[in-house]
Amino acid sequence: MSFKKIIEPLKDNLQRNGIIKPNPLQTEILSKIKGGKSMFVIAPKNAGKTTSIVISVINKLKEAFEDAPRALIFVKDKEEALKLAEIFNTYKRGTDLRVYCAYEEHNMELQREELYLGTDIVIATPKRLNRIFYLNGINLNLLQMFIVEDADFLFRNNHFAEVTRTPESISRCQYLVFSDKFDARFERWQDTFMHLSEIIELE
Fold first, then answer.
1. Residues near 26 by beta carbon (within 8 Å), at least 6 away in sequence
2. Could you report the per-residue pLDDT of 137-192, keeping only the tens digit for each?
3. Neighbour count for residue 52 (Cβ, 10 Å)
4. β-pair type (145-148, 71-74)
């Protein structure tokens, strides 16, 4: 997919930041993501995985809609959440899309109240998202995109199990997992909620 096929504000923001055309990874995956395909995207660091996430989410959601989030992105910790939110804020300029970060270091009740006010994109750590969800603090009924950024972190501190629980409450969704390498434990996801997924590997 060329950048000609994305919404104008996003195209303008990409150009403003020196991104004129898709890199090899984006050429391979952006059109598939736009088409709704669930995927494991395996590529080395600096291949453009994070930018691909941001481009795909903004281009798919386009504008604010109701109160419940339509994209959920799991990250390792507060630092990664805030870093990803900053990238989203750079590339969503000119849209009214709302981005919210949920992580352990923030007050739980305040997070529930803020989420209730409405958001389109939630960037969360697995532990905090699960706590908010089981306290009925987030509605996942409108979720369209379930994404894990840099999934290597899942295999520490029980994160894999926490992320695995979330799809049990989602009826239909696109799943995108980005990682430096394919871990054999991902096969459990292929056997359940990602059974129709494709594996894209970039050397």
1. 1, 48, 51, 52, 55
2. 999 999 999 999 999 999 988 899 999 999 988 888 999 999 999 999 999 999 99
3. 22
4. parallel
Nearest to 121 by CA among 65, 161, 83, 172: 65
Residue 13 three-state SS = helix
**Distance, C-alpha 8 to centroid of its chain:** 21
Span 44-66, mean pLDDT? Answer: 97
pTM of the model: 0.96
Q: Which residue has the tokens 């453009």?
A: 48
The 3-class SS string of 151-191 reads HHHHHCCCHHHHHHHHHHHCCCCEEEEEECCCCHHHHHHHC
Give the Cα separation of 172 and 174 in Å (integer).
7
Structure tokens at 172: 């239909």
Longest dimension (CA), the chain: 44
> How far apart, in whole angstroms, are the C-alpha atoms of residue 121 and residue 72?
6
Q: Which two tokens stand for residue 167?
A: 């799809």
